[in-house]
Amino acid sequence: MQRTKSKFVSFIGRFGLICTLPLALAACNNGGPFAGFGATYASLSDSRFTVPAVDTTQFKSRYLRRTVSYNGRERPGTVIVDTDNRFLYFVLPGRQAIRYGIGVGKKGMAWGGRAVIGMKKKWPTWTPTANMVRRDPKLKKYLGGFKPGIGNPLGARAHYLYRGGRDTNYRIHGTNEPYSIGTAVSSGCIRMLNQDVIDLYRRTKVGMRVVVRHGRRNAASL
In which domain, by residue range, is 6 found? Predict the structure, then answer.
C-alpha cells in the first residue's frame, strides 16, 4: 500500500512538473505573459492620464529597459541612439548606461548625426509635417494639432531634437504601439514605450547632446 502511494505521489509530482513546465518556459520568453504588470511596465497615473501596462510579449525581451556597461567616449548625460540594433542609451557615470528598446525610421526615412535636446514636453500635441501629409493626405485633419492623450502618436513625452539652433522635426517620443518596438516603422522619429520615455524624461535636460548612429554593431562599446 505504501509503495503504491509513493508511486502515486511520484506520478503527481511528475505530472505537476509537466503541467507547469510550459508556463515556466513562457515566463522565460520575453519576460512572460504577465511581465507587463511588473513594476517597470505597470500601469501608472501621470498628470490627468493613465498609461496602460505594457504587454511585454509583443516584442523581444532584449528591448526591455536595463542597465548595461558602457565603454564609449561620450560623457554622462549623452543620449546615444543605435538605429541598427534598435537601442537608445542614456550614459551614466561609472562606465554604465541605461539601455532602452526603440522603434526607428523606415528605410529611407532614418535620420542620423548629432543634435541637442532643444525642448521637452509632457503629453505633447502632435502635428504632422508637410511631408507626412503629402505621403498620407488623411493626416491633413491633424494640421491643427492632435490633442494630448493616450491615442496621441507622441505618447506621454517628447524630446525635440535641434541642430544649429533649429528644430529638425525629429523627436524622441512615446508610443501607443508597443508592438512597434524593435522595428523600423516611423517617419524618422525615435519611439519608445511610454514607461521608458517617462523614465528618460526624468534624466534628461534641455541642451543635452544626442548622437544618432547607423551601421554600428554596438553603440555601448564605442
Answer: 2-30
